[in-house]
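INTERNAL AUDIT FORM
Audit reference: QA-55
Scope: verify that the stored structure record matches its stored sequence.
Auditor: D.O.
Record contents follow.
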Amino acid sequence: MAEAAGFDAARLWRRAGQRDRVTTVAPILPDAARGGVRALLRLEGAVLLAGALVAYDQFGAGWSAFALWFLVPDLSLFGYLAGARSGAAIYNAAHSTLGPAALIALGVLGAQPVVLAGGLIWLAHIGFDRLLGYGLKYGSGFGATHLGQVGARDAW
């Protein structure tokens, strides 16, 4: 009776399946932060970046050294040449706040200004990445992060 009225359920299901394949919205990662939580985590990245920049400026280290070393943690991307799981582990080791926190503590407690400056630069880099939405990676691929899917289809 519904088919007589112009309703074809099989055709509707086929069209729905096609729409799913051509979507412009990034797939939702079940473990990724979404909505207000994701916005808050990105805001934390901005605060982390700003705090590290202010501390670095107050410390009085040269900005040329900052510019030279700022992108060094991204060399961890070469870990993806060994595969997604290895790449994610190496990337996460270089983009966790544990490393720079340890360097900053070592620099302060040991009165080692170069180590302190390195920790602040590293921390600023992590804050910048988090602000842009590049979170810690899952082993399924580079685009799968704790802040959501990264890529051209990312809505925010």
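Auditor finding: record pair retrieved intact. The two ends are 45 Å apart (CA to CA).
Action required: none
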